[in-house]
Amino acid sequence: MQERLKELQEEALQAVDAAADLKELNDIRVSYLGKKGPITEVLKGMGKLSAEERPKMGALANEVRDLISAKIEEKQQALEAAAVEARLALETIDVTLPGRPVHTGNHHPLTRIVEEIEDLFIGMGYTVAEGPEVEKDYYNFEALNLPKSHPARDAQDSFYITEEILLRTQTSPVQARTMEKHDGKGPVKIICPGKVYRRDSDDATHSHQFMQIEGLVVAENIRMSDLKGTLELFAKKLFGEDREIRLRPSFFPFTEPSVEVDVSCFKCGGHGCNICKQTGWIEVLGSGMVHPNVLEMSGFDSKKYTGFAFGMGVERIAMLKYGIDDIRHFYTNDTRFLKQFKLN
Ligand code: 2U9
Question: How sure is the predictor about 40, in pLDDT bands with cuts at 50, 70 and 90?
Fold first, then answer.
C-alpha cells in the first residue's frame, strides 16, 4: 500500500510538471484528488491493515495528497503568471512608432473672413444681425429708397417667388427690419453678414449667389468723419497697419452722399502693380450717409438722427486677401482648395 501511494505521488507530480495549461492541470486535480481518484481507492483497502499500521498509512496518504495539492497550486500560479506575461507581450505598444494622423477639417475661407470682420466690428460695439434670405420686395427695395419704377433696380435683378417676394439681392433689408424694430429710437449699430442672390451669368468674378457684409450706424450727430474713421480702421485691420483709404463720390439710392472706398494696394504699397492695375488703389467697399428717406421710412426722425452705412462683397475681400483668381473655387468644394485655409 505504501509503495502504491509513493507510485501515485510520483505519477501525479510528473503529470503536474508536464501540464501545459490550466485546463490540463484541473483535469489532473480531479483525477488524482477527486472522490473517485486512485488515492481514495487505496484508502478503501485500509480496513485490511492492522490497528498499528492504519494511522501510519492514513498519515502517509494525507501527506501524499497534500504534496500533490501543493504542487498543483504552485503550478497553477506559474501557469497564470505565464498567461499574463504572454498577454502583456501581445499587447505591447511600441511608443516609438509615429501615431496615426487625425484628419481634421477647417473653416471655409468665406467663414474665416466673415468671422474676422465680425470680431473687428464687435470690438467696436456693433452687434451682428441676421434676417431672411427669402424677402419681401418692400424690405429689399422699397424701404431702401428703391420704389417699383426705380432704374437702379435693374442692376439687382433677382429670383422672384411672387411679385412681392424674392431672394434678397443685398443684406440691407436686415438693417431696414432692425431699424423698424427700434421704433424711431437710436442708437442702431449693427453689421449684417449673409448670402444674397442676383440674376447674373456666372464667370470668374460673378456669381448668382454671393456673400455680403453690410454695416449700419444710426444715432444723433453721426457724421461723414465717423464713417471715414471706421472704414480706415477696418482697412488697416484687414489689409495691414500701413494701409490708407480714399473716398470717391458715387451713387447708391439708399445713401446720400455716397462714396466708393479704395484701400492703398497691400502688395505694392501704392506704387502700382498687377493687383491694383497700376493705380496703387483697390476698391473694397461702398458706403455713404443714410438717405433721409430711408431713415423716415423705418420710423426715424431724419432731423434728429443721422447715420452711415457700408457694404462689401465677402468673396471679393477673400479673393484679394488670399490671392484667389476665380470666385467659383468658393462653391465647388474641392478639398485641395479648401485645405489651403487651414490655420497653423
Ligand atoms: C440701410 C441703409 C443703407 C448699405 C450700403 C453699399 C453702400 C455698397 C455693395 C458693395 C459690393 C454691395 O456686395 S456689393 O455688390 N454695397 O456699395 N451698401 S451703402 O447701405 C444701407 C443699407 C441699409 C437701411
Answer: confident
How does pLDDT run across 52-93, given as a tens digit for each residue?
888 888 888 888 888 888 899 999 898 899 889 989 988 888
Q: Which residue has the higher pLDDT, 173 or 7?
A: 173
How many angstroms separate the CA atoms of 313 and 213, rounded?
7
pTM value is: 0.74
Question: Long-range contacts for 317-325 (Cβ within 8 Å, ≥24 apart)?
Answer: 317/113, 317/117, 317/238, 317/284, 318/109, 318/110, 318/112, 318/113, 320/239, 320/266, 320/275, 320/282, 320/284, 321/113, 321/238, 321/239, 322/109, 324/109, 325/204
Q: Looking at ligand 1, which residue's alpha carbon is closest to its atom 16?
A: 311
To 10 degrees, the CA torsion angle through 156, 162, 165, 167?
A: -50
Three-state SS string over 180-248 comes to HHCCCCCCEEEEEEEEEECCCCCCCCCCCEEEEEEEEEEECCCCHHHHHHHHHHHHHHHHCCCCCEEEE
* Residue closest by Cα to atom 22 of ligand 1: 172
Q: Which comes out higher in pLDDT, residue 328 or 149?
A: 328
- Map grid coordinates 484667389 to a residue: 324
Q: How far is the CA of 172 from the centre of ligand 1 (A)?
A: 7
Ligand 1 centroid to Cα of residue 7, in Å, is 106
What atom of ligand 1 comes closest to residue 252's alpha carbon?
A: 7
Strand ranges for the chain from DSSP E: 127-128, 134-136, 165-167, 188-197, 209-219, 245-252, 255-264, 281-290, 306-313
* Rounded-to-integer distance, Cα 341 and Cα 279, Å: 29
Determine contact, residues 289/256, Cβ cutoff 8 Å: yes
Closest atom of ligand 1 relative to the 176 alpha carbon = 24
